[in-house]
Amino acid sequence: MTMNERVAPLLYIFAGLFGFAGVALAAAAAHGGGDAHLVSSASAMCLAHAPALLALAIGIDKLRTAWVAGVLLAIGTLLFAGDLTMARYAGSGLFPMAAPTGGFAMMFGWLAVAVGAFIRKRA
What UniProt keywords are attached to this protein's entry (predicted)? Predict the structure, then answer.
C-alpha cells in the first residue's frame, strides 16, 4: 500500500469532520456570546481547510506533495481550532503554544501545496 493510498482516506475523513465542526462552531459563535471570537476563528479555520483537504485527497495522485500538505493542514487545523475551542469551553487551551504551532503547520501545509507545483510526477 502506497503512502497516497494510506493518507487519502484520512484526508477525506478530516475534510468531513472539519466541515461538520466548522458549521457547528459557526452556530456556536452566533448564539454563544462570551468569547465568541475564539469559536468564530476556529470555525473559519475548519471551514477553510475542509475543502482544501477534500481537494488534496481527490488530487493526491496528481500533486506529489499532496499527502505532506494534507497531513500538515489536518494537524495544524486540529491544533489551532482545538486550542481555541478548548480555551472557550474548558477555560484553557490544549497546551502552551498549541494555536501558534497549528498555525505554522497550516502555513507549511500551504507551502507544500505550492512546492508541489515545481516537483514533477514520475511517468
Answer: Membrane, Signal, Transmembrane, Transmembrane helix
Rounded Cα–Cα distance for residues 76 and 98 (Å): 9
Higher-scoring residue by pLDDT: 93, 4: 93
Contact status, residue 116 vs residue 64, Cβ threshold 8 Å: yes
d(CA 39, CA 55): 25
Give the tens place of pLDDT for each residue, 18-68. Answer: 999 999 999 999 997 777 889 999 999 999 999 999 999 999 999 999 999
Give dist(CA 102, CA 26) in Å, integer.
Answer: 20
CA distances from 25 to 5, 20, 50, 102, 104 (A): 31, 9, 14, 18, 22
